[in-house]
Amino acid sequence: MPVPILLVAGFLGAGKTTVVNHLLAHAQGRRIAAVVNDFGAVNIDAELIAGASDGVVSLSNGCICCTLEGDLLRTLATLLRRDPRPEFIVIETSGVADPSDIVRNLMDPVVWKEAPLETVLCVVDATQPAARLDDALLRSQLRAADVVALSKADLASAEQRAQVRDSIRAIRPAAVVVDAINGEVPSALLFPADLDRVPMPRETESRRPAVDRFETLSWTSERPVRLPRLQQAIGRLAPKLARAKGLFETVEQPGRLMVFQLAGGRATLAAGGTPTPGQPRARIVFIAEMGVLSRAEIDATMEGCVEPG
C-alpha cells in the first residue's frame, strides 16, 4: 500500500517544527515517520522534533531542494523498508527550500508508486508584515501550497491576520488558509481518510537555477554559557540575523538544556530537557544573508559568553 507524504514548507522561523511536533504528538494511532532537514552543519530541528525519537530521520548541512536530493530519496527508500511500515511520512524542509524543486523529485515514477505526495503545507508567520510576502522565496513556498497555516495567529492583531490572509489569497487563491495556534492544524486537511486512494500527480514548474542567498554559521562550546552574557551577545548579532536557534547549558542551571530561538526579531528561551552525553554544552546555528556575518565576528562575540575553563 502506498505511503502518503506530507511536505511542510515555510520561511525561516515560520514555525514549521512546532507544527510537525503537534502532528507527531497527536498522531491518534497513526504511524508517522518524520524527515527533518535543517540548513547548517548542526541540525537543531531534529532534536526538537518529538525528542529526536526513532521515527525521526535527520538530513543536515544542506537544503533538500538542491544538494541533498539523493539523500532524501535514499531516506524515503529506507523508511519504506521499515517493519512495521509507516502509514504517513512528514518531510519538514529547511526555511530556505523551494518546495517546487522537492515536488519535482517526488514526482519520480518510482517514488510516486510507493510514496505519493498527498499535501503541501506552508507555514506562515501571521505576525510578519504583509509586505514580507513579496519575498521571492516565500512566494514560491506559497505557490506550492495546498494548505497555509498561520502560525502565531494568537500574537497577531485581527488587522494583521486579515492583511496576511489577503496577500496569501492573491498569491495562492486555491489554498485553504487556517490559523495554527501552538502548531495545531486539522489533520483532516493533511492526511487522506481513504488510504487506498492515490492522489493525482502534480504539475511542476521548470527548474530554476539555484542561487545561494543564505549561509549558516554554527558555534559550539564544550563549556556552559552565562545567560546574561549570551543575551547581550545575541542582542549585538540580532540586527544581522535572519534566524538563529540553539541548545545550551548555562552556568546558572547546570545539567539542564535551554532551547533558544530567534525569528522575526523575537527571541525566546524555553526548557529543553537534559544534555546528551558526548554533545557540546552549547550549540547555536546563526543564519544570515550571504556575506553579512563572518565567522570571526561570531567567534569574537560569543567568546565572552563562555565560563572560563
Automatic annotation (TrEMBL):
* Matching Pfam families: cobW, CobW_C
Give the Gene Ontology MF terms in alphabetical order. Answer: hydrolase activity; nucleotide binding
One GO cellular component term of this record is:
cytoplasm
Asked if Coiled coil is a keyword of the record, the answer is no
| This protein's UniProt keywords | Chaperone, Hydrolase, Nucleotide-binding
Give me the reactions it catalyses.
Answer: GTP + H2O = GDP + phosphate + H(+)
> What range(s) does the CobW C-terminal domain occupy?
214-306
- CDD domains assigned to the protein according to its UniProt record, in alphabetical order: CobW-like
UniProt-listed InterPro entries: CobW-likC_sf (IPR036627), CobW-like_C (IPR011629), CobW/HypB/UreG_nucleotide-bd (IPR003495), P-loop_NTPase (IPR027417), Zinc-reg_GTPase_activator (IPR051316)
Q: What does this protein do?
A: Zinc chaperone that directly transfers zinc cofactor to target proteins, thereby activating them. Zinc is transferred from the CXCC motif in the GTPase domain to the zinc binding site in target proteins in a process requiring GTP hydrolysis.
Q: Which family does it belong to?
A: Belongs to the SIMIBI class G3E GTPase family. ZNG1 subfamily.
State the name under which the record lists this protein. GTPase
Natural source organism:
Bradyrhizobium macuxiense
| Classification of source organism | Bacteria, Pseudomonadati, Pseudomonadota, Alphaproteobacteria, Hyphomicrobiales
